[in-house]
Structures are given as C-alpha cells and as structure tokens.
Design brief:
single chain, alpha+beta, Butyryl-Coa Dehydrogenase, subunit A, domain 1, Butyryl-CoA Dehydrogenase, subunit A, domain 2, Butyryl-CoA Dehydrogenase, subunit A, domain 3, 3 domains, four-stranded antiparallel sheet, binds flavin-adenine dinucleotide
Length: 410
C-alpha cells in the first residue's frame, strides 16, 4: 500500500536534517555562495559523523539494509528536501554517497558494491562522482561518448575528457573517493558500447583540469577531468564480465539509465526544498507587511496575490506527492522511469516559477542580497538542467506514455 506520510522510523533522521539545515546550513549559506570553491569542511565532517551514526544517508547501503528496503529511498527524499531547504549547494557537499555511488548501486555486482562503497563508512569523509558528460556528449549521450576504454591484459586504459562533474574535485583531490567514468569499449556500437568504469582517487593519468564558475549551487564544485592513458584494474568495470563479452548488448548502457531512475527523484526532492524555503520566506515577508493569505475564501473572492500563493502551494504539494511516488516505486523495486522523469520535470518547473515569482513580488527585497531569495532564484535553474534537461525528461515521459522507442520519438 502506498503511504505518503513520513514513516515513523525515519522521523528522527528528518528532525536531525532539520536541525542541521537551520543551524549549520542557513547561517553559512551566503558565505559559501560568495566564496565559491572554499570547501565547507565543518559541514562535511559533521555530516560524515552524523550520517555514519544514522547508518548512511546517501545512496550507499549502510545499516538501512536491516530496516528493509522500503525505508531508504523515502528517507532520502525527506532528508534531501530538508537539507536543500537549508542550502542546496551545501547539500551537494554531503559526503557518503553521491551520483558515483548511485551508479555502483545500479550497475555493480555485490562484490563491487562492497569494494567501492565500504569507504563511505570509514573514519574520513569520502566523495564519489559521475562522469558521463563530454564536450560533445550532453543530452545526446551516451551515443556520442568519445572517451575510450581499451583492454590491455588485466587492465583497462582510459582516454578522453569529461566535463561538468558534480563533486569531481572532492572525489578525486579532497578525499580518497572515486569517479564513475562512462567510456566506450566499441565506438562503432555507439550507445551499446558504453560501459561504466570506476577510477579511484590517486590513479595516475586521471587529472582534474578545471573548476567551473557558476550561476548557482556555488558551494558545490563542478569539475572537468582529463583521462590520459589512465590504467585501472579489469575488475573496475561495473557489472558482470558478460557486459564486456556482449559488445553490442545495451546492458552496460542500461546501467546509466537505471542510475537516473534513482537520482532524478532525488533532484526533484532537492528542487522542492528550495521551492518550499522560498514560499515560506515569501509568506513571512508578506505577513510582515500586513498581507495575510485567506485560504478559506472561494477563489473568486481572493485577491490575485492570494490566488497566486495558493497556486504555488498546489504546485509544490502535488509535485512532492509525485516525487514520493517515484521514491516509493524505487523502494518497492518497481519500474519508476515515468514517475522519476515526471517528478524531475515538474519540480524543475515549480522551483524556477516559485523563486522567480517571489523575487518579482517582493521587488527590491527579493532582488538584493538582504535575503536569500535572489540566491534561491539562482540555485533553482540547475534543477531543470542536470540529470537530463526539462526537454529530455519530457521526451522520456512522452515515450513512456505512448510506448514509443527512442527511434520513434527523439
Ligand atoms: C552544474 C552542473 C553539474 C553537472 N553535473 C554533472 C555530473 O555530475 N555528471 C555528468 O555526467 N554531467 C553533469 N552535468 C551535465 C548535465 O547533465 C548536462 O549539462 C545536460 O545533460 C545537458 O547537456 P549539454 O549541456 O551538453 O546540453 P545540450 O545537450 O547541448 O542541450 C542544449 C539544449 O538543447 C536541448 N535539447 C537537446 N536535445 C534535445 C531534443 N532531442 N529535444 C529537445 N531539446 C533538446 C536541451 O534540453 C538544452 O536545452 C552537469 C551540468 C551542470 C551545469
């Protein structure tokens, strides 16, 4: 049975997230926005200790296994929403299970999950990242991936360039983490030749070459990486050896898609955290100016402003329910591609609309740096871009509903 209430078992984790959001994130939100690339070590170390005590908070399996599979993704949705309400850039600096771990979970064997994810339960905070995008392969990935992986005895040799890697610097330079690199073992096979490989921090031939300067989420690093004759063990290819033998099979590529089914609703939850923060602040500032929202009135008797605020509440809450559905399907191991992409599309729209309208409605108060509203407006847009743009997720939704293939609708 679907329940959209917060399960009792995760309440303490969400209360902790709320305390962290209020006391450790909001007070330093402006500082890390203005000091891009300064690493928020206090937050990182505190989160590492807290999440370890809670049994893992990201996409890594920890003690959550004992609680049964239902809890983990629901918990992630509630925690993510709350921490992003605190500060989305800092939330992206949370150690212990990011996009790289999601790929290991989606495509790795049990042995690989243990080998690569155990480090997240160690003494020091560790980051992981995910490198699919290339200068010539964004939305058109993975068919256009040019990074190559050539087998040489017991090793793979990787060559290529990856860009826009969230937490890439933290994974490879600031911690003993890893990067999941998508490379082709057979360029002629296009998307069917693409496979995920784990490159560990410190591997010769893997170098961070650039950090982006961004509009929003400035507390989070976004890196470029060059792979130049980078040798990794044969066993670092995620999945069973079968995915190597069947060069024209789409099994390896499907690992990337499975990763997105897990991470798109997480991005949706994060977007909704920013949207809720904005709506709360908007109502608070309006109330200070004597504008109360009369929720009980018939719509025809409301002011235009009241109707707008009510519409924002509807957008926020309905998208949250959709996001919870996508997460619930993950926990139940049911196919969730449709709900995952739908929640991502909706949440990307909702957060952009709410933050933009708040800045407009409050005039100078919204536009200046007195409050965080202008920052949330800048932080909002990325939710409509990464993990597949709004346009690409709309295509996925349409294909799912119409039962069209990629070739029939692209
Ligand atoms: C801050 C940040 C962090 C990121 N983190 C990561 C990460 O950790 N790992 C990673 O691998 N990537 C990451 N990315 C990359 C991100 O996923 C890509 O930017 C995104 O997939 C879009 O690809 P692109 O930039 O090449 O745009 P393009 O593919 O060139 O698209 C440009 C525009 O065309 C539209 N478009 C493209 N094809 C179609 C179509 N068929 N129909 C309609 N419209 C279309 C797109 O929606 C977009 O609006 C990150 C990006 C940013 C900005």
């Amino acid at each position: 049975m679907i329940s959209f209430e917060m399960p009792e078992k995760i309440e303490h984790a969400v209360v902790l997230a709320e305390t962290i959001a209020e006391n450790m994130m909001r007070p330093v939100s402006r500082h890390f926005d203005e000091n891009e690339h300064e690493i928020p070590w206090d937050y990182i170390e505190f989160m590492h200790t807290s999440l370890k005590a809670l049994g893992g908070g990201g996409l890594t399996p920890g003690k959550e296994k004992k609680e049964g599979p239902r809890i983990s993704f629901q918990r992630m949705a509630f925690q993510t929403e709350m921490l992003s309400w605190g500060d989305v850039g800092l939330w992206l600096c949370t150690p212990g299970g990011g996009l790289g771990a999601a790929a290991v979970n989606a495509a790795g064997t049990d042995e690989q999950k243990e080998r690569f994810l155990a480090r997240h339960r160690g003494e020091k905070p560790v980051f992981d990242a995910f490198a699919l995008t290339e200068p010539h392969a964004g939305s058109a990935m993975p068919a256009e991936v040019r990074t190559t992986a050539v087998r040489d005895g017991d090793e793979w040799v990787l060559n290529g360039e990856k860009i826009f890697i969230t937490a890439g610097h933290k994974a490879l330079v600031d911690s003993q983490g890893f990067l999941v690199v998508w490379a082709t073992i057979d360029p002629e096979a296009r998307r069917a030749g693409v496979r995920p490989f784990v490159v560990e921090a410190g591997t010769p031939g893997c170098k961070v070459t650039k950090l982006e300067h961004k509009l929003g989420i400035r507390a989070s690093d976004t890196a470029s990486v060059v792979l130049d004759g980078c040798r990794i063990p044969f066993e670092n290819l995620l999945g069973s050896p079968e995915v190597v033998q069947k060069k024209k099979s789409e099994k390896g590529f499907k690992g990337a898609m499975a990763t997105f089914d897990a991470t798109r609703p997480v991005v949706a939850a994060s977007a909704l955290g920013i949207a809720r923060a904005t709506l709360e602040k908007l109502k608070e500032l309006l109330a200070e100016r004597g504008v109360e929202i009369r929720y009980g009135l018939p719509r025809s008797r409301m002011t235009n402003l009241e109707r707008e605020i009510v519409d924002m509440e509807v957008m926020l809450r309905s998208t949250w329910l959709l996001t919870l559905k996508a997460m619930w399907q993950m926990d139940e191991r049911k196919p969730n591609t449709l709900a995952a992409s739908m929640s991502k599309v909706r949440a990307g729209d909702v957060v952009v609309k709410i933050t933009q309208r708040a800045v407009e409605l409050l005039g100078p108060l919204g536009y200046t740096r007195e409050y965080l509203l202008e920052k949330w407006f800048r932080d909002a847009k990325i939710n409509d871009l990464y993990e597949g743009t709004g346009q690409i997720n709309r295509l996925i939704v349409a294909r799912q509903i119409l039962d069209y293939t990629r070739h029939e609708l692209s």
